[in-house]
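subagent[fold] <- orchestrator: predict structure for attached chain, return tokens only, no commentary.
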Amino acid sequence: MRTLLRISLIAVLIVSLVEIPVFGAPSRSLGVVVQAERARISTADAASGVTLFDGDTLATDATGTLRVRLGETQFSLLANSAAALRQTAGGVSARLQSGTAVFASARPEAFELLASEARIHARTTQPTLAQVTMVGPYELLLTCQRGELEVRIGEEIHQVPEATSYRVMIEPAAAPAQGGGRPLPTARSKWLLVALILIGVGTGIGIWRALISPSAP
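subagent[fold] -> orchestrator:
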């Protein structure tokens, strides 16, 4: 009887050890929703206070807005926009899939915005406020309202100073050839300086003011 009981206990312990990796510690949260109006987090409606995790997709309707706090970064989507969040070694990245994103950050490694072939982040530790719009799959409208941005496209590195806007046309990287061969060119870009574009009315102005305000949540 004792032998049978001992065998049963050993079996329970083995099963428990096998199950531990499956029920490991939950994923670390990336941030929290600050304000939401006609917006979604993955497949659920967004609401203030909702916790964000690695892999979450943010989206807004035609008249929606969404503002979230990602550690030290404030990040917003305007109407008809979508972005996917990922955890990085130093903080969070957001891949803009459509529409317009606005972010405020003061630490380059804390936040990076990916849009088409571009990787965009604050260049210095000064407070940086930027807006990026995906005009098309390989065309961006990029505005630095405050601070300075660094933009990487393939092997190119561009600096965007405060109070400037650029229309960026991107030539995507070539697909890898079968069987090796000569190295293929990486993504390239053409930059056109345009008049500084501000979000002039309605919800956009409110978001910009909230992001630059010292009292913003």
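orchestrator: received. Logging for downstream: The first strand starts at residue 31 and ends at 41. The chain is about 15% helix and 50% strand.
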